[in-house]
Amino acid sequence: MKNLVILGAGTAGTMMANHLHHHLKTPDWNISIIDERDKHYYQPGFLFLPFDIYTPDDIIKTVDEFIPKDVSLIKSRVDKILPEENKVQLADGKQLDYDVLIIATGAKISPEETPGMGGEEWQKSVFDFYTFEGALALRNKLRDWTGGNLVVHITEMPIKCPVAPLEFAFLADSFFKNKDMRDKVGITYVTPLSGAFTKPKATEALTHLLDEKHIRIESDFAIEQVDNENKQIIDYGGRAIPFDILVTVPTNKGDELMDRSGMGDDLNYVPTNKATLQSKVYPNIFVLGDASDIPASKAGSVAHFEAEILTDNILHFVKGEPLSEEFDGHANCFIETGNDKALLIDFNYTHEPVEGSFPFPGIGPLRLLKESRMNHMGKLAFRWIYWNVLLKGTHIPFVSANMSESGKHYEKALNE
């Protein structure tokens, strides 16, 4: 019997277990998935928790309920990958052999990378919302806050879900309006980028929304430290921005397991072929989701599209067939803009977000790069889709893993 081992039972790892158990069956194959956690978090819900839109019960389920019964779930910390020996070593010293290894260990925040960020004001006036604990602490703070300077900040790229900090700023504007205290809150969006987003076309639309909502933007801000005593962030050029509440996205890094195993880059991301999702060093190791170093967005939708293509490639690999170089970096993301509206963006390695309709060309009903209530409903509906369709490896009808060009205004975008 051959062994396929999946590291990580988050979004990407769980999808791969559900895809592959239909194809690699006993007595020929044994599939194992390893994760030390008991809880599976719906991470997009962390954005809504601080504003009391979702409760903890809306975004937490157990890991066990999404793992197929014919897949072995091993609850343990992984100490090291031994790629030259095709083994995984667990924290208790036990070793597992593998014929194929899938790395889906995700990315995590590292506030310790910035002096002062994880200091005495952490979760008092300095918060993150990329963890359940951070989002919950921020919710409790905002419930009783009476106003001041709210600074929403990105430390450096890449980060998980790069639109999430913008969404937070937009939802904060809406939240304080609804509490009839918007005039008591100044909102500043601070980014290391030269504009609101990584893609020029989307930056144009998002900058307009920031202006419309009176959210000030501070761009090209390379943070040097968080000054806890004076409550300000300072960049390497000496620019200082004061805050009463700092909502920051710390440096994101891959799992420390990659450092211990000698398999990661400077940020612990695994060098990966961006078209096949195969490790650049070890042919029988594949990487998907936030764990890889591919230049795609670190978003759940990307992991979803990767999982469908990687399933085919692993089946090619075990049969000794050439891999398909099909993954195009496809990302499809809703951007909450407040007041029950949202944008939808669709892009890949080579095409930036453009206007058009999705998923049906010319029909929609979702409009790309346009604010609408329909897009907002799509964002809220995605939570049900996540728990009931996406995690279980079920294909979402009419949504292809690769980006479709139909119904999108590429010519207009290229001529502008």
Give the arrangement of secondary structure elements:
Layout: E1 2-7, H1 11-20, E2 29-34, E3 39-41, H2 56-59, E4 60-62, E5 72-74, E6 78-82, E7 87-90, E8 95-97, E9 100-103, E10 107-109, E11 126-127, H3 132-144, E12 148-154, H4 164-178, E13 185-190, H5 200-212, E14 216-218, E15 223-227, E16 232-235, E17 240-242, E18 245-249, E19 252-254, H6 256-260, E20 285-287, H7 300-318, E21 331-338, E22 341-347, E23 356-360, E24 364-368, H8 373-390, H9 410-415
Parallel strand pairs: 1-2, 1-9, 2-5, 9-20, 11-18, 12-13, 12-18, 13-14
Antiparallel strand pairs: 3-4, 6-7, 7-8, 10-19, 15-16, 16-17, 21-22, 23-24
Total strands: 24
CATH topology of the largest domain: FAD/NAD(P)-binding domain
> Which stretches are poorly predicted, pLDDT < 50 over at least 5 residues?
411-416
Oligomer: single chain
Main sheet summary: 5 strands, parallel
Tell me the domain tally. Answer: 3
Number of DSSP helical runs = 9
Q: Mean pLDDT, nearest integer?
A: 93
Instruction: Describe the strand arrangement of the main beta sheet, using strand numbers.
Output: 5-2-1-9-20
What is the overall shape?
A: globular
EC number: 1.8.5.-
Domain FAD/NAD(P)-binding: 3-295
Enzyme class: oxidoreductase
Protein name: Sulfide:quinone oxidoreductase
